[in-house]
UniProtKB/TrEMBL annotation:
<protein>
    <recommendedName>
        <fullName>Sulfotransferase family protein</fullName>
    </recommendedName>
</protein>
<dbReference type="InterPro" id="IPR027417">
    <property type="entry name" value="P-loop_NTPase"/>
</dbReference>
Length: 240
């Protein structure tokens, strides 16, 4: 039986490779990174009379999100350690409050996206993804806490067939995986670095934020999007 082609979207550091690993290791599917141009980019709007054709090679699709606080923490660490694809300050307080430029460093003349701050980035990207009603939404925090339950629910919505007898979940940090790589066993997907689940299960990322930071983030969030993504209760608990 041929593998189901799954399109995947998500912001930087939102858990795309983690979700890809679990889906491909447990279900008869092939998760594709760049079906719509770039998995970390916006879904395009193509007019009916455009020379471009609105035809993309996929059968099902999902997007994955982190809650805004864990996203900001992860994105800042990515910015400092990887030093790719972002133009932004290197100090956390400035980082969350200042404009951010996003681009694909793999392209010599990549177009750029400009956002007022990383919260604006989180809002615009996830609003765009959530607007596609045929996309399945996966919340990263839920996936880390209950991987089999959450991925089984998503797989059911996408009509995927289970192939593993014992559910396979990465115990190490996963690699950044592109579509050209050959991945078969779990070892092909993960690094040798232990995965710190506690950072998400116990919300350790909140130590990055002082009270002023929390107030600023809350002032920038879109309540309608928080509700749409199912983060209202979590954000209230994190900031109580």
């Amino acid at each position: 039986m041929s593998k189901v082609k799954i399109a995947m979207m998500g912001c930087f550091r939102s858990g795309t490779n983690f979700a890809k690993t679990i889906l491909e290791q447990n279900y008869n599917c092939e998760v594709k990174n760049n079906v719509f141009g770039w998995k970390h980019g916006l879904l395009p709007i193509i007019s009916a009379d455009s020379n471009a054709q609105y035809h993309f090679d996929y059968e099902k699709a999902f997007f994955i999100t982190k809650n805004p606080f864990s996203f900001l923490s992860s994105l800042f660490k990515y910015h400092l350690s990887v030093k790719r694809n972002l133009i932004a300050p290197n100090e956390f307080k400035q980082f969350i409050r200042t404009k951010i430029i996003v681009f694909d460093q793999g392209q010599a003349n990549s177009p750029q996206l400009r956002f007022n701050n990383p919260i604006d980035f989180w809002t615009m990207m996830n609003w765009n993804y959530a607007s596609k009603t045929d996309f399945v939404h996966i919340r990263y925090e839920w996936l880390v806490e209950n991987p089999e339950v959450i991925i089984e629910r998503a797989a059911g919505k996408m009509g995927l067939e289970r192939i593993s007898t014992n559910f396979i979940t990465p115990q190490k940090e996963v690699k950044r995986i592109n579509d050209a790589e050959t991945t078969k066993s779990l070892e092909d997907y993960q690094t040798t670095v232990d995965f710190d689940k506690g950072r998400y299960l116990k919300h350790g990322y909140m130590t990055d934020f002082d009270s002023d930071d929390v107030r600023f983030v809350l002032s920038q969030l879109d309540d309608e999007l928080l509700d749409k993504l199912g983060y209202v209760e979590l954000v209230e608990n994190l900031t109580a």
